Amino acid sequence: MKTMLVTGGTVFVSRYAAEYFLRRGWQVSVLNRGTRMQPEGVEHIRADRHALGDVLRSRRFDAVLDVTAYTADDVNALLDALGGYGQYILISSSAVYPETGAQPFREDAAIGPNACWGRYGTDKIAAEQALHARRPDAYILRPPYLYGPGNNVYREAFVFDCALADRPFFLPAEGGMRLHFLHVEDLCRFAEILLEKRPAQRIFNVGNPETVTVRDWVSACYAACGREPRFVSVAPDVVQRQYFPFYSYEYALDVSAQCALMEGFMPLEEGLAESLRWYRAHGDEVRRKPLLEYIDRYLS
Fold first, then answer.
1. What does the pLDDT look like over 125-164, one tens digit per residue?
2. Which pLDDT does position 51 carry in this prediction?
3. Are residues 170 and 47 in the same domain?
């Protein structure tokens, strides 16, 4: 049986990944501090990735899926502690591309500071560079916005709250800004493809083949709830993140290399329906922001 180490394993992407590869027949170990409920069926290695000591030294994994590395220190601490392992996949971010670059961003485009993402993006750059300095054969994935069951970030959940309460939706301008998404299952599917096919390319943008406008995304969220939105346009001088869960930043990734290796993507409508089912059962796990309070006080 193939063995995999997943960092994290208890929240959204890392938990979904651990459960996905478990279903696919892998023997999965998750590495975390043990402060949350663990996925059923995995081995829990209880430790802080910055104080691992010898806990991993005698172990060998066929693959490491590093979901929770945000800095170079995160990467180096894990590499220093690992014993034997095969392939390494780092989940990075599209935040490594500066917003001033030509779009759609290609994997060989220049990376650098992004004014919207700030330190998060520059730390991800440092994590990528630390990994490839020591493991040039490691794979790096740069996703856009991830969604799906388990998403504890207040994005689609915010729109679901508006739809379920039959509220009008306050839309940035006319809603033409485009967003790029990827369902968490498609992220895991592509990681699995990399482990099987071992392509020579080492850095991949991952995302749906097409972007979607804010208006269409909100409409799809409402439709998942059986509702149709009534839109209210908000002037551009109002800070968007006060009432809407995304920055005023439109971007797109070139995912042609991913699409050459993987066919078929989760339809947005189906993915959002999955998200809604999860949210109805686990709404208390979502980190809410006071977007509705701002709307009620300043926009309604």
1. 999 999 999 999 999 999 999 999 999 999 999 999 999 9
2. 96
3. no
Distance CA 156, CA 245 (A): 9
Measured at the CA of 52, the angle between CA 47 and CA 53, to 5 degrees, comes to: 135
CA distances, 137 to each of 61, 87, 134, 199 (Å): 16, 8, 9, 10
Amino acid letter, 146: L
Determine contact, residues 29/17, Cβ cutoff 8 Å: no
Question: Rounded to whole angstroms, how far apart are CA atoms 107 and 104?
Answer: 10
Q: Where are the beta strands (DSSP E) in 107-228?
A: 139-142, 145-147, 169-172, 178-179, 181-183, 203-205, 212-213
Q: Is residue 257 part of a domain?
A: no
Tell me, yes or no, whether 169 and 62 share the same domain.
no
Torsion, Cα of 133, 137, 143, 147 (10° steps) = -120
Domains: count for the chain: 2
pTM of the model: 0.97
Polymer length of the chain: 300
- Give the max Cα distance, the chain: 60
Residue 215 structural domain: 156-179+209-251+266-299
Quick count: other Cβ atoms within 10 Å of Cβ 255?
Answer: 27
